[in-house]
């Protein structure tokens, strides 16, 4: 089983996270940030990852610390669950329509962190959620997952749809990348011999 448990406690947040890469999409999310609960539930479902998360954060200040630290913990969980990355496909991509929005994501579980973020979200807020935090979440994730992730808006006007499309598309790209190719299950998918 490719699973991980992460516990992260700082002066700003306390996070407990469990991840199963080979799950069915079940989730129990209590992030303290309603919009993130929605996005992480979608992420788990579309990636077929089982995800349990609780976060107690200083949301009386704002949601920044909670959202960023969740990204850190989720990235660490992927790293832990993937181990040496033997047999994984390594690459994944998805072009996902979400009503008027069209989102492209592509990922390489390369061991190198890079975020190409081009979502151009048209509003500063969705409800009470600060849309700047979407980029912060994905930056924190790629730094701790050590992957290259590109997110690009190809079309879209509704901020909620753009962000939701990005989380769904990223999840589907990651699902493809973490899948194990049975005939290559003992191989590292790199000429370097390590990822």
Report on the structure:
This protein is of the alpha+beta class and 195 residues long. The protein has four helices and ten strands, in the order E-E-E-H-E-H-E-E-E-E-E-H-E-H. It has helices at 34-47, 64-82, 132-145, 159-178; strands at residues 3-9, 13-20, 27-30, 50-57, 91-98, 101-108, 114-118, 125-126, 129-130, 148-155. Strands 1-2-4-3 form a four-stranded mixed sheet, with helices on one face. Strand 3, helix 1 and strand 4 form a beta-alpha-beta unit. The longest helix has 20 residues, at 159-178. The protein is globular.
Distance between the termini: 20 Å
Q: Give the DSSP E fraction (strand runs of 2 or more residues).
A: 25-35%
Largest sheet: 4 strands, mixed
Q: Helical proportion?
A: 25-40%
* Largest sheet strand order: 1-2-4-3
What structural class should be given to the helix and strand makeup? alpha+beta
Mean pLDDT score: 97
Count of β-strands: 10
Radius of gyration: 16 Å
* pLDDT < 50 runs, ≥5 residues: none
Question: What's the SSE pattern?
Answer: EEEHEHEEEEEHEH
Question: How many distinct helices?
Answer: 4
Gross morphology? globular
Write the layout of secondary structure elements.
Elements lengths: L2 E7 L3 E8 L6 E4 L3 H14 L2 E8 L6 H19 L8 E8 L2 E8 L5 E5 L6 E2 L2 E2 L1 H14 L2 E8 L3 H20 L17
Parallel strand pairs: 3-4, 7-10
Antiparallel strand pairs: 1-2, 2-4, 5-6, 6-10, 8-9
